[in-house]
């Protein structure tokens, strides 16, 4: 059992936009969880959560509260000899002003051979509008409906190499997601964005990820690669909005690539990261878009230990090539930046 209280205060000032705003958030959360093993193969878990946010924010008309609660029950099975893993989750959430449906989920990992395992999962999901979605001024929409969705995913994990020097695997998964009343911040004719409910969205695609770990001559490292192909289209819309049907959702790229290369020896390490985001549409009818962009980051550091305390000193350069890009229209992202961090842990 645990109880958490968080008090957050922020004073945001901007001479350029003549803003001097004060934000005050209080978060109260209590949880209780119980876990019990049923023999060698089964584990039973249950719990309950209560969560309340009190928001005193300059961009809200008044102090707002968002109370939420949930109860859940989970049963997991692990076959020690067969390698089969499965879980069943039953969850019921409660949120002020909304009737939240019962949300179950089931998942399984099924070994096909020594090197291949199939995966499968189905879940029902529900998301209520956030406080900013409802109350932010300007743009907030207090009449938003909650999102409801079903998510289905299947795939496979393949061990490509299991040697002493190199170990590698690849994961391939296909997903299919139907969302009713999807909440999306949409730019209006005046340029001001406001959250709206999209009637129905079909998101599907393929995710491919791989990881190769190696060690040789005192060095060790890994290479990770990820690719996501994610068509996400409107399949139902309000009357008069037929021009958005079968169009890609705004700000969701069709293609994404992520690569990470890590190498270390002893207490020192370096890491290189590369990401590519395809073009993102900024109008629901796909008539305007932001161009694709790629980013390159570099990290180097060392870890030192003294008795029971460890120190990690890290230097990083983000956006090494000083790429000019926007994640959201009219909001340029930072160029090249440098940072040094020291993490002390026991």
The main sheet comes to: 17 strands, antiparallel
- End-to-end C-alpha gap: 24 Å
The rough form would be described as globular
Q: Which structural class matches the secondary elements? A: mainly beta
User: Rg, please?
Assistant: 24 Å
Taken in chain order, the helices and strands follow as EEEEEEEHEEEEEEEEEEEEEE
Number of strands: 21
Query: What is the chains' assembly state?
Result: single chain
- Low-pLDDT segments, ≥5 res: none
> What's the number of helices?
1
* Percentage of residues in DSSP E strands: over 45%
Helix content: under 10%
Mean pLDDT: 92
What does this structure look like?
With about 350 residues, the protein is mainly beta. It is built from one helix and 21 strands. The chain has one helix spanning about 130-135; strands at about 1-15, 20-40, 40-55, 65-80, 85-95, 100-110, 115-125, 145-160, 165-185, 195-215, 220-230, 230-235, 255-265, 270-275, 280, 290, 295-305, 310-320, 325-330, 330, 335-345. The strands form three sheets. The protein has a 17-stranded antiparallel β-sheet that branches. A hairpin with a 5-residue loop joins strand 9 and strand 10 (about 195-215). The longest helix is centred in the middle third of the chain and has 5 residues, at about 130-135. The chain is globular and about 60 Å long. The relative contact order is 0.07. The mean pLDDT is about 90.
